Amino acid sequence: MSSPAVELSNFGAGRDSREEDARLLVDNEEPSDNRVHGSAAKIKTYLYLEQFISDWHMWYADYSLVVFLADQFPGTLVYVSVYTLLKALAAVLLSSWAGTIMDRMDRLFALKWVIISHRCSIAFACASLYLLKFTPGSGFAFSILLLLFMLLACVERVTSIANVVALERDWVIVVAHNLKEDRQHLNVVMRRLDLFSKLAGPFVLSCIDTYSRTAAMLTLVAATILSVPIELHIIQKLRDSVPGLKIAPTLPLELETEREMSPNILSAHTSNTAIAQALVPASITQYISSVVFLPSFSLALIYLTVLSIGAQTITYLVASDFTSLQVSVIRGVSVITELAGTWIVPPLMERIGVVRAGFWLLAWQVASISLPVTIIAMLDTRSKFVAICLVSGICVKRLGLWGFDLAVQYIVQGGTPPPTRARFSSTEAACQNLFEVLASSLTIIFAKPDEFRYAVYVSYAVLVVSLLCYMRFLRQTKGHAPVYSSPTHF
């Protein structure tokens, strides 16, 4: 078995490049029988339908559980803060482990268990919150139900990451390869479904919740439970239609050797480097040593930010005398901007290539925030004019953020060995959640609305560091996306 290699290809730079990419993948990773069973349109429908259902449950549940929890404990942000922090910590600690487990399992079996675990955790978490309404606040039963809810929320977060990793970082690659489809097009369509769910899910919940909180809870429980058999049927049909999904990726030679090294061999190394490598988890070592580490880490870095329409910025806007309706409109504009990017960004990637497009999209984010940061440094942080300038910059920034995320996703998909995709992407998700935790700590340190400017400064500085990391990757690859090349299957 020849050792795997990483080649460079200018993905998305034009028709000739796409044909070369397809040839590389066919030569290196094509199974002997790649004939799909069914039309390409039908297979893509299965993929898109499962992506939509998964995204809908993730966004709908994420918003719903926060609303239900806040209603259960009015007048305090403590429980919501603990809930958010625990979910992020669970993702940091367990995402990489979950990815490693998925890499060792059959694709269909792994995704089935992820779907079942995620949907059931949502339903049971909602049920535990419902029971809390009828439980005395100081009793033992109340504490148990609250603890159960927090644990289920952690399960929901980790399994939602696993769901995304399986579909967007593995299954879509295999489907695109077997159908001879442009993977970038599939990525864009799936991202549109994600953004639509992000916009429509909370809106639907708000409509039902306005009518009845109990009806909203029951709808969430019923929808998540009833969708499970439908989803299992969809992924079964998808797997049966695409032969590549039935093939277990083989472990690259150097990773196989690393895994088979005994503790005695490791202990024989006396250098500090060898000792450090023995202490660092294999998932972290693989992540840092990957040729696509820099773009992945650049993406993770920008999660350390308050420059989004998230909880911290919403709190700042409310303190600046914005009404809840105005905040909702701002949030909607932000999501619509991201949706617009699904039509604007792909032609850019087609014209100059994915890697170079990633650089310009990240530079766009830095440029779009530069003026608002300057204004917030010069004027009163609490003034409505400053707040409007800041959210305007954030909305414009979202266009570059979405495009950069898509570019990095494409680069990672092409440059990660098939047998380690889940572990790599889960470690990436853990880094993103770690930086989210650090972002939350910013507004704990700078808790007053007048101090929000300092959190903005830190976020802007991190964005610049992210750009520098990506520039190093751009220089290393000369604008060409790494392509994993190995005589193994998808």
Give a description of the structure.
It is found in: Membrane. Keywords: Ion transport, Membrane, Transmembrane, Transmembrane helix, Transport. With 490 residues, this protein is mostly helical. The chain has two domains: 212 residues, Growth Hormone, Chain: A; 205 residues, MFS general substrate transporter like domains (Growth Hormone, Chain: A, Up-down Bundle), CATH 1.20.1250.20. The chain contains 18 helices and two strands. A two-stranded antiparallel sheet has the order 1-2. α2 packs parallel to α4, α5 packs across α16 and α6 packs antiparallel against α14. The chain starts with a strand and ends in a 5-residue tail after the last strand. The N terminus and C terminus are likely disordered.
Keywords:
single chain, 490 residues, mainly alpha, Growth Hormone, Chain: A, 2 domains, two-stranded antiparallel ribbon, globular, disordered N terminus
Summarize the structure in short.
This protein is mainly alpha-helical and 490 residues long. It is 78% helix and 2% strand. Helix 2 packs antiparallel against helix 7 and helix 4 runs antiparallel to helix 7.
Report the principal-axis shape: globular
Can you identify the CATH superfamily of the largest domain?
A: MFS general substrate transporter like domains
Give me the CATH architecture of the largest domain, please.
Answer: Up-down Bundle
Mean pLDDT: 79
The gyration radius over C-alpha positions equals 23 Å
The number of E-state strands comes to 2
Identify low-pLDDT runs.
Answer: 1-6, 9-32, 252-279, 484-490
Count up the helices.
Answer: 18
Please name the CATH topology of the largest domain: Growth Hormone, Chain: A
Order of helices and strands: EHHHHHHHHHHHHHHHHHHE
| Tally of individual domains | 2
Subcellular location: Membrane
Function: May be involved in iron transport and iron homeostasis.
Family: Belongs to the ferroportin (FP) (TC 2.A.100) family. SLC40A subfamily.
Keywords: Ion transport, Membrane, Transmembrane, Transmembrane helix, Transport
